[in-house]
Amino acid sequence: MPPGTLRTPASAPAASKTEWGKTPVDPDERHFLEGPKPRGSELVRALRIFFEYLRGFRALHFVGPCVTVFGSARFTEDHPYYRLAREVGRQASHAGFTVMTGGGPGLMEAANRGAKDDGGLSVGCNIRLPKEQKPNPYLDRWVEFRYFFVRKVMLAKYSYAFVVLPGGFGTLDELFEIATLIQTGKILDFPVVLMGTEFWTPLLDFLRGTLVAAGTIEPEDFERLMFTDSPEEAIATIREAAIRRFGVREAAKMRRRRWMFE
Fold this sequence. Notes:
By secondary structure, this protein is of the alpha/beta class. 42% of the residues lie in helices and 13% in strands. It has a seven-stranded parallel beta sheet, sandwiched between helices.
């Protein structure tokens, strides 16, 4: 790692492989969005959500400046997109970033693996689902969440850029949530890079040819998105933005406080 890199966190413990997605989903979760419930149960749920946020904040406070990589869990190691994601993770780590993903298999695994190829820090934010899951073997730290919205906050909160690789509903959900947060000024205009241009071309055409043409988004909303197949170009753009626009190099290191059991 060259001098002046962006990585700031202390070493993290190896990822535990116990209890990853193995707890059956609480049936109460299915009722969360089904209208009002007794006030006592709503209070308990609100406290549960609060403590889930708190647990995420504590687990990820020292991970340093991240690049979050989104992508499908369904691509295997022999797929070109897996190799692309692995190189993205390696390049991001070499530039000094912590690589953050959903922590699962497929392109998430590939990005975490690329970070480990470079000796960098690799983090996963899992979501508890009915079907059993397991962490990919390339994580230094991971945290599991009950609620999708808590997990998505964590994937956004610590990152200075977002790389979106080919994926399905979940990946599209993550992409458009980040794009909406940027469009509405809820977060800064961090780089959003879509990689795998052949895969994303129909979406690119729809955004430009339909949404921009209809006026439902502004041309600058579309122009914020970067499309490339080059990990080197993507990470160079991300690094330049992180340093020039967001002052990552000048960011103070987080200090651990013993009285908070850190």
